[in-house]
Specification:
It is a single chain. By secondary structure, the protein is mainly beta. It contains 4 helices and 22 strands. The strands form 3 sheets. Strands 1, 2, 4, 5, 7, 9, 11, 12, 14, 17, 19, 20 and 22 form a 13-stranded mixed sheet that branches. The chain has a 7-stranded parallel sheet with strand order 3-6-8-10-13-18-21, with no helix packed on it. The protein has a two-stranded antiparallel ribbon with strand order 15-16. It is globular and about 45 Å long. The relative contact order is 0.15. It comes from Chryseolinea serpens. Keywords: Acyltransferase, Transferase.
């Protein structure tokens, strides 16, 4: 079994009731999970509809936030970013201009540079994505769109057709790199610029 806490040190503290959930299931259920979490946020969040923004977060012009979404203390979101399908940003997450995030959790201290896409993924703390790097969440090019992952040398079925990646703490992803659906990156991994990561053929 895949242990999310092995990849993300802060996961259990942030989501204590979900420590035994697979990351693809966790991402698939993000909308209901965040909708429930919105009900118990402290008073230093401003909640409008299904979007909660901490009073110390900074959001530039022309950002689109489609709830449910939680933007935590110290976050920055650059102009023209697009967040949809359920998004959780932990403390001091930076999302640069023109990024798109869909149905994903990004844990504290991580940064997307600009023009990144993150779909149906779980990113740890201290992750850095350089400009133009992409986390794909769907096999458009395959007849069989079921997503599998490699864990300890074993191929595991996820049972879903949309899942991007589990990205461990302090991973560095170079500019214009692409992570294929079902990518699992150990903490402190480095993905080179222009690299294609395709762990399951």
């Amino acid at each position: 079994m895949l242990s999310v806490s092995h990849y993300l040190q802060n996961f259990a503290a942030l989501f204590p009731s979900h420590v035994n959930v697979d990351p693809w299931t966790f991402c698939a259920n993000i909308q209901s999970l965040l909708t429930e979490r919105l009900k118990s946020l402290p008073s230093d969040y401003v909640v409008k509809g299904h979007v909660a923004i901490h009073k110390n977060a900074r959001i530039e012009e022309h950002v689109v936030l489609k709830g449910p979404a939680i933007i935590s203390d110290g976050c920055f979101i650059g102009a023209h970013a697009y967040l949809r399908g359920g998004v959780f940003l932990g403390e001091k997450v930076s999302v640069g201009p023109g990024c798109e995030i869909k149905s994903s959790y990004i844990l504290p201290g991580s940064a997307l540079a600009h023009f990144n896409f993150v779909g149906d993924s779980l990113l740890g703390s201290g992750v850095n994505m350089e400009a133009g790097s992409i986390i794909c969440n769907h096999f458009n090019e395959r007849a069989d769109k079921a997503i599998h992952v490699m864990v300890d040398g074993q191929k595991l079925a996820t049972g879903v057709t949309k899942f991007g990646a589990l990205v461990g703490d302090n991973v560095k992803i170079g500019a214009n790199a692409v992570l294929s659906p079902g990518t699992i990156l150990a903490p402190a991994s480095v993905v080179k610029r222009l690299e294609l990561v395709e762990q399951v053929q």
